[in-house]
Design a protein that fits this description.
about 475 residues, alpha+beta, eight-stranded mixed β-sheet, RNA-binding
Length: about 475
RNA sequence: UCCUCAGUAGCUCAAUGGCAGAGCAUUCGGCUGUUAACCGAAGGGUUACUGGUUCGAGUCCAGUCUGGGGAGCCA
């Protein structure tokens, strides 16, 4: 794996006894360098592990001692030395250096310091911030969380479907979309009516970046039974909040022969599984979040893993909220969508754990959601979590073609735009359900990071796509 | 998009309308086991931008840009 018998710091921390009093070769970057007259200490991070390894170097045993003293934060090194135990010291072991070679120098205008930086500043150097403790932890956890999601579905025989990133027209209605075009915007061809003639565009029609893979996933669910998508999603909303981005990742499972209860069971199992997986496989990172980002994080997550999620219907929720209407700026009333303050009250005050809110009025939900027998509500569910709000939105889909068509017409949409989606009902259509999990929102909940921009490597938000 | 707060040294922040400051970082020096090491010294400024009020503006006013927090939209 590593040439020249090179060892990683992760290997040493995971099995130190295998390396004690042995010579090891390391490579990495200086996180800090302190020197005294005749000796010095380097904190080395090699990217393989959250923690650093301390390198001790001494004047009498290192020929380039005077040069090493001057090396600054960020310098890339190749180090050879003996791993020794250091009982009683703050670090468990360290390397007594025999040779230290500079692989890549780092001049003194390097923006990162040993000191703490604000997240705002680090966003302005998004290409360097993964070298900091916090972002090292965030992005290793992001990688693990992705893996845990695939593992969860794989173990349940779900088929992973790659739904298209570029989609035809805006037939999905989940939000404002980014246009995809090869037309020259200054000299776009026009139709006789004066609009842009997308027939001359690359695809011969108007196309956009996807806002959801759901409709495509439904097609595959009605062939493979249980499927999921996990990919990038784009919304051109001018949203300026800590929990919205223009480009984010979404997990969208879809199950045939499944109702809303099955849908919620899957969502609850998944959240518990993936959180448990990351806690067990990234203990150093999770302890760091628990100590420095969000005190009480692990206790809260362990509570999520071990307790049952709350369940309440929209109608019941409104009844509770109406009794407390004096505390809200927006008064709760049946038929209105729940405000953020309402959702927070329910999940943070009433339940103090994740809760499913189900059976919303049909007029505030999407056209494809299945109409309940009361004729007023649909089989929808939102999963609300303390601190973040909505993390999952899902529903049982309307499988009855005549009811779906009625809804499409009611909303002024055109049946022909949904011809293939309607075919899924016409040919062997069955009841089915699915949901969308905001991957970054799960990241925020899992790490305690409070801004979505700090859980995406190079975030895209309004007026911001520098990197 | 709306409300609100902010923008001063590389970073984190001070400065009643009256001389532009500190800590850290950087550079130099000191120190025989440091842990955000410590001690001493030096260098470092278009106070976001444009205009205005004033004898005098980092400070007051107007506009613009960028960022934070909140709301809407949603995941």
């Amino acid at each position: 794996m590593q040439k020249e018998n090179r060892t990683t710091i992760r290997q040493i921390y995971r099995q130190p006894e295998a390396y004690y009093d042995k010579r090891v070769s390391l490579s990495g970057w200086i996180r800090s360098n302190r020197d005294s007259k005749l000796f010095g200490f380097i904190e080395l991070n090699d990217g393989s592990f959250f923690k650093n390894l301390q390198i001790v170097y001494e004047d009498h045993s290192l020929e380039n001692f005077k040069d090493v003293i001057r090396l600054g934060v960020g310098t890339a090194l190749a180090v050879e030395g003996i791993l020794v135990e250091t009982p009683g010291a703050k670090q468990p072991f360290e390397i007594k250096a025999e040779s230290i070679k500079v692989e890549g120098p780092c001049p003194s205008d390097y923006p990162l310091q040993k000191k703490r930086h604000s997240f705002e500043f680090l966003r302005s150097i998004a290409h360097l911030r993964p070298r900091t403790n916090t972002f090292s932890a965030v992005f290793r956890v992001r990688s693990l969380l992705s893996y845990a999601i695939h593992k969860f579905f794989r173990e349940r025989d779900f088929v992973y479907v790659h739904t298209p990133i570029i989609t035809g027209s805006d037939a999905e209605g989940a939000g404002e979309m980014f246009h995809v075009t090869t037309l020259n915007l200054k000299e776009a061809p026009l139709t006789e009516e004066g609009g842009i003639d997308f027939g001359k565009d690359f695809f011969g029609r108007e196309t956009n970046l996807t806002v959801s893979g759901q409709l495509s996933a439904e097609a595959y669910a009605l062939a493979f039974r249980n499927v999921y998508t996990f990919g990038p999603t784009f919304r051109a909303e001018n949203s300026n909040t800590a929990r919205h981005a223009a480009e984010f990742w979404m997990i969208e499972p879809e199950m045939a022969f499944a109702d809303l209860q099955d849908d919620m069971m899957l969502a609850e199992d998944m959240i518990k599984y993936i959180f448990d997986y990351v806690i067990r496989h990234a203990p150093e990172e999770m302890n760091f979040f628990n100590s420095f980002i969000d005190k009480g994080l692990l206790e809260r997550l362990n509570n999520v893993i071990s307790s049952e999620f709350g369940r309440i219907t929209y109608t019941e929720a409104v009844e509770i909220l109406k009794k407390n209407n004096d505390r809200f700026d927006y008064k709760a009333e049946w038929g209105m969508d729940l405000q953020t303050e309402h959702e927070r009250y329910l999940t943070e005050q009433v339940f103090n754990k994740p809760i499913f809110v189900t059976d919303y009025p049909k007029d505030i939900k999407a056209f494809y959601m299945r109409l309940n027998d009361d004729g007023k509500t649909v089989a929808a569910m939102d999963l609300l979590v303390p601190g973040i709000g909505e993390i999952i939105g899902g529903s049982q889909r309307e499988e009855r073609l005549e009811l779906l068509d009625a809804r499409i017409r009611e909303l002024g949409m055109k049946e022909e735009d949904y011809w293939w989606y309607r075919d899924l009902r016409k040919y062997g259509g069955v009841y089915h359900a699915g949901f969308g999990l905001g991957f970054e929102r799960a990241m925020m909940y899992l790490t305690g990071m409070s801004n979505i921009r700090d859980v995406i490597p190079f975030p895209r938000t309004p007026k911001s796509a520098e990197f």
